């Protein structure tokens, strides 16, 4: 059967049925076998391209061949949804989230503004409010969905700077904004803050690194000292970033105390909760987040700990005027909205960088509504409990050392054989253990530096993980360590 019509890129009904059935099967096959796969197949650079036809077809290729190759691409991917994947901050996508993304792509709405994507815009504004309420930030939060936490953090810093500069930097540029404006964040803050300061022209050096206490939380006395010192130098402190779940160890900064300092020195208070903010859904951890409601803006990634497929970040704020002042443009006649009510004239381009935007809200909405808040909260609590369980195992073991308290769902530890090895040697050994575990495909850990030491780091944002997966991961680490030492 000829699957393609001759005249267009559209396909006939039979071909569409075949395509839908085969692709749905492929997804079904993947989601029902993910736990049995190696976390990462044996792989090397070039292996994927060797497994597929790399010539660009002139006339198109049969669907079955293409799907076979797609299977190879899937096989050779790292499976972030595997129950023993604990690297970086990567969660499995829920099945409903994956299908929601398919629906969004089929609809192909471009959520630039209400006029272009009326349904998508209304859903996004609702979902943003839900996210604000979910983490007890604000029941009437404003904001937008973004590609991720890096973009959310960058937008926040620009809004903050524009709000605090007192000069029209939008027109005149930073050259006319007076003495350098400075940002404050702990030494554990995510790299996206320094990167944003770089991209926005503030300069990485204008991000003042605040030392942490023994629990890796920002030291408020140091924060205050640095702000005062900069002020004496004639610099202009404008923003402090608190982390609600640091990427290294999952620690939450003392948000209320940071908010006090921000209020005292008239700084914008941004909270980077890209990873950790949903941790507040666990009532045992809720207290850690006290003060988040005092922030001017909060980053929170549904594609991390709300199990929504990439990409889905979010920036929440209260002061929509500040965001609009940073991004709205009077110059482009071709995008002006004519003849609409205020609500219908709403445009996301007034609040962020992107013009064309995916319909991200659909997968966030469908995920939250399919499971409901209680089930999502349970999955988060379970992740937290499993990280604590790993922490207990390594604390009790003679051959492991816990390197940081387990505050949310991240556990940092290292393998320490009985012989008295120094830190440098232990760093090298643990680095090799990590490499071996990663390549072995049984489990996947990444790394962090904790108080100068190389740590094996497990970040559990994974609703598929069970206690036995934790035990198997520990066994994989021990096995790697033993094979390296024999
Ligand atoms: C605390 C924190 N902030 C920001 C980011 C950046 O998020 P994204 O990768 O979505 O840009 C991460 C990523 O892991 C993070 O953990």
Describe this protein's structure:
The protein is α/β, with parallel strands linked by helices and 486 residues long. Helices cover 42% and strands 12% of the residues. The protein has 16 helices and 11 strands. It has helices at 13-33, 47-50, 63-75, 95-107, 118-134, 149-165, 169-172, 191-199, 220-232, 255-265, 302-305, 320-327, 361-371, 373-396, 423-440, 467-485, and strands spanning 142-146, 181-186, 207-210, 236-243, 268-272, 297-299, 313-317, 400-402, 410-415, 446-450, 453-459. The strands form 2 sheets. Strands 1-7-6-5-4-2-3 form a 7-stranded mixed beta sheet, sandwiched between helices. A hairpin with a 2-residue loop joins strand 10 (446-450) and strand 11 (453-459). Helix 4 runs antiparallel to helix 13 (361-371), helix 9 (220-232) runs parallel beside helix 10 and helix 14 runs parallel beside helix 16. The longest helix has 24 residues, at 373-396. The model has no long low-confidence stretch (mean pLDDT 95). Pyridoxal-5'-phosphate binds at residues 89, 148-150, 153, 190, 192, 247, 272, 274-275, 301, 313.
